[in-house]
Amino acid sequence: MDDVADRPLAGILLRLLSGILFTGMMVCVKAVSVDVPLGQTVFFRSVFALLPIVAFMAWRRQFPAALATRRPLGHLVRSGLGAAAMFASFAAVARLPVAEATLLAQLSPVAMAVGGVLLLGERFSLHRGLALALVLSGVAVLVVPDLQGPQEGVRVLGYLLGILAALLTAGALMTVRRISRTETAASIAFYFVMVTTLAGLATLPLGWVAVSGETLGLLVLSGLFGGAAHICMTLALRYAEVSRLAPFEYVALIWPVLADLWIFGLPLTSGFLLALPLVLGGAVLAGFEGRFKRLLRR
Fold it and tell me: In the record, which residues are listed under signal peptide (predicted)?
């Protein structure tokens, strides 16, 4: 098996593509969020995500051999964190504009840096402290203006769910980076989708609804986009270091902004515009901590 982080250009291009695909998925999810229960959306998104994943494995002649694993516990941890993140993320985008939900997802790099200190015993550096301060300031700027708005409860709950999704995603990505040294990208995505499918199916007794043809089409597209996006993201993390991919995380914010403006007719709020440089600045510091340190030593 080839080493990780040895094809940075491929990793960057795959990360950019995954951003477009993830935005397409979130647009579909938001479009059906009023009519379709959360668990039902997660189920359909996960079932139809299997199609691109299995097709990818078959194209690489890895199916079903690639499903063999030496890290079953690692897959379980990654998939459990990812499934919880999906529920929280979909619940957030149902209550927030796509751009704001996506911006909150950018908390993940900072959460990963802080997680390294709390869980892995890494040193708490000035860069990490400053990154955390910037991100917390950005979240405050985003949330505080809505504490007295007409939809205060709905939006604040959306913000909390978005933050929770970012924290869970950080844990999932840390696990992906670790198990991708021995596991294939397809198997990581496959087992994740299987767990989320079962998690969504478990909500059936809570009440699912009959859907129209148009809604079913959006649910199918959410799965196809999501499955392809996860393949691209997993490969990107395999081919390039997280710090190298960090700046390209922010290019992905272009597509949600356009989706809000052109598809949903939602204007950008002043809170979002003020929070954007703070959150992205914190994420840049967290993602490039090692490079900043090397520059300061010169």
Answer: none
